Amino acid sequence: MLEAIDLKKTYGEYQALKGLNFKIDKGEIFCLLGQNGAGKTTTINIFLGLLKPTSGKALINHMEVGTQMADTNKLIAYIPEVVQLYGNLSGTENLDLFSRMAGYRYSAKELMNFLEKSGLPQQAHARPLSTYSKGMRQKVGIAIALSKHAEVVFMDEPTSGLDPKATDEFTLICKQLAHAGTAIFMATHDIFNAVNVGSRIGIMKEGEMVHSTSTTDVDAKSLQQLYLKTI
Ligand SMILES: Nc1ncnc2c1ncn2[C@@H]1O[C@H](COP(=O)(O)OP(=O)(O)OP(=O)(O)O)[C@@H](O)[C@H]1O
């Protein structure tokens, strides 16, 4: 579904990615840990087609990002740390706009269903996005991913700043998405949540994947120890 093959990225003299290799299957939630500057966002930006790798390949469904971007972009959705949509438009209007941009046209009832599935309270659907909390914005991001039928969802620190209840709700939605077959790539600093939500954990250091483990083989305390020893 998602594959990095010897991915390298250099910014000027600085080598941010030094030959990254990983594979993420359908239905997996891969949580990527790593210090500030390890190269997590660079990796995501390459898969989103926002950055060109210096060498190597980023593949989505065996298609190379960059050369087949029109096709790969149809398969992906992105949820950043703060979902930035149109503040003057409501949740429903944002969802309508972004799903149309992805080539879908939905009825008001269908839009409402996506927002409900994402867990956004119904009384918020018609309110301007500028009045939404961070957790509510994340839910609109999820609704957009659902409406696009995204097969891969990239998330960059999606739970940072969310309260425990909102984190829990977000985790549940991620698990539901994965259960339906979506592959999730989540860059995070939250070791506890990574173990809770992830099916696999990667630890990145200075542009390389130095550990990859299944969450069935590790608990939060031992992952924290491994992380601190690694970085
Ligand atoms: N446009 C750029 N020009 C030069 N260096 C850059 C650029 N973008 C990123 N870098 C450098 O590349 C390295 C990797 O950055 P990246 O943002 O991918 O790290 P990260 O793991 O996402 O960090 P964080 O956890 O802080 O978000 C860092 O040293 C960063 O300073």
TrEMBL record:
Protein origin, superkingdom: Bacteria
Protein name: ABC transporter ATP-binding protein
The keyword ATP-binding is annotated on this UniProt entry: yes
Gene Ontology terms for molecular function: ATP binding
Pfam families the record matches: ABC_tran
Residues of the ABC transporter domain: 2-231
PROSITE patterns noted in UniProt: ABC_TRANSPORTER_1, ABC_TRANSPORTER_2
Record has Nucleotide-binding as a keyword: yes
Keywords associated with the record: ATP-binding, Nucleotide-binding, Transport
Database matches in InterPro entries: AAA+_ATPase (IPR003593), ABC_transporter-like_ATP-bd (IPR003439), ABC_transporter-like_CS (IPR017871), ABC_Transporter_VariousFunc (IPR051782), P-loop_NTPase (IPR027417)
